[in-house]
Amino acid sequence: MEKAKKRRFGIIATIILILAIVFGIVWAQNTVSHNQKHQDTLARVKKSGKIVWGVKADTKLFGLMDTKTGSSEGFDVDLAKAVTKQMSKQLDEKLTPSFVTVTTASKVQLLKNTNIDGVFGVMTITPERAKIVDFSQPYFPAGQSLLVKKDSGINSIQDLNDPSKTVLVVVGTTAAQNIKKFAPKAKTIALQDYASAMQAMKSGQGQAISTDNAILYGLASENPDYHVVGGTLTYGPYGAAFDHDQKPMVKQVDQALDTLKANGTYNQLIKKWFGQVPGLDLNELEVHK
Amino acid sequence: MTLLDHYFSVFLQGFGHTLLASLYALVGSLILGTFFAIMQVTTSKVARAIGNIYVQVFRNIPLLIITLFFYLAVAKVIKMTGFTAGTIALTLYTSAFIAESVRAGILSIEAGQMEGARANGLNFWQAMRVIVLPQAFRVAIPSLGNQFINLVKNSSILAFVGGLDLMYQGNLVAANSFDTFTTYIIVGAFYLIITLPLSYYIQYLEGQLKKKA
Hints:
The structure holds two protein chains of two kinds.
Chain A: H1 2-36, H2 41-48, E1 50-55, E2 58-59, E3 63-65, E4 72-73, H3 75-91, E5 96-101, H4 107-112, E6 118-120, H5 127-130, E7 134-140, E8 144-149, E9 166-170, H6 175-182, E10 187-191, H7 194-202, E11 208-212, H8 213-222, E12 226-229, E13 238-242, H9 247-262, H10 265-274, H11 282-285
Parallel strand pairs in A: 1-5, 1-6, 9-10, 9-11
Antiparallel strand pairs in A: 2-3, 3-4, 7-13, 8-11, 8-12
Helix pairs in contact in A: 3-9, 3-10
Chain B: H1 2-6, H2 8-41, H3 45-59, H4 63-77, H5 82-108, H6 111-119, H7 124-154, H8 166-177, H9 180-212
Helix pairs in contact in B: 2-3, 2-5, 2-7, 2-8, 3-5, 4-5, 5-7, 6-7, 7-9, 8-9
Pfam families (chain A): SBP_bac_3
Domain Solute-binding protein family 3/N-terminal (chain A): 50-277
Protein name (chain A): Glutamine-binding protein
């Protein structure tokens, strides 16, 4: 009797478990296929009356979390706000910006899952990426450079082309590929974010940090013992990114960016965020007609 | 699956580093853990206190903080890579848990065994090694198995300090390919390659020991 009871319990438990798993898989697959169905971002934005932008929270000058307000602040955030406002005028519909923190690793997945509508997140426009996401026109002329300690004696990428040298980069950036190209003998280690990379360099885990000059200037302004050297290795302008095949949305954003550049709003934002950075020539960043 | 094909050497390199870090940490933490377990059951008050402090410190601090401590602070004095820093932290962290498992094992053995062995002329270490520890390990094996499996999974901490392990390579592949979902499924499968055989081996050991007892 006791045995039969145990047996019955085992059978029922197994059936319930299997059913739960099967239903779970079916439900998950339905949701995923529903989410993956091509949605027109512009149509979604118009319907909901807001644009959800993905911005960074760990990048000084572009998108850095302000611990007092709990929201990201920087050039990317301000530009996204301005673009949203401009788009409201163009479409003659009330649109409000809303912000979600993304990381270098998560931003594309969040776009694909339609959790966010677009990304203003120091994202370099590359041909490989353009196969997976749609880019707006360039909104910031960035280029990869090097941050080193002032007394390190390193002045260019050539000084790093040695097996004893380690260059620190951040996961999800294009920096590592370029280091392999320009200094094939150097080792590269990828860390989670710029703050960790800076800490690691201070602890002697690497001799240089390589990423876009604009970000390095942000790091250098907080760490006076370090400076940016070697000019720019590459020209890699930033673009706003959207899910693949979203031409109507991209067209609207491009149009908004054109207007902002023409009416001086863009230059104002550049001055606001980059005016105080030592060693940076504002003329290179501002738009001149 | 094209993803696996395309990045196979990258995953394999990560797998190698994870396996190596787990192996070092497993051996190291077993030795350290047993040592501190014995310290906690000796009659010397000082030794007991030291053993206890060691266990409490490393058991109650997050593994990530221990890792960052070695990677960022200790590395200023002694040069070490992220792999070394991560493996040392993993060893210390796990050894605290192993010390507790082994201590529980030792305490489950009647005090009379130790007394009997001592009465027959064995010194403390001999009695420990020949009489008490073999029985204690038999009791501790299920919980030791848990610790070892946790250890393998915890080795993903190396990714935070550029330790070149599976998780680190997975992050890179995910960032390069933009296919986060598939990448982490593959990474998960690679972890199973290590943890599943380990689980079954522990189960098998338990069975063997039951038969003997």
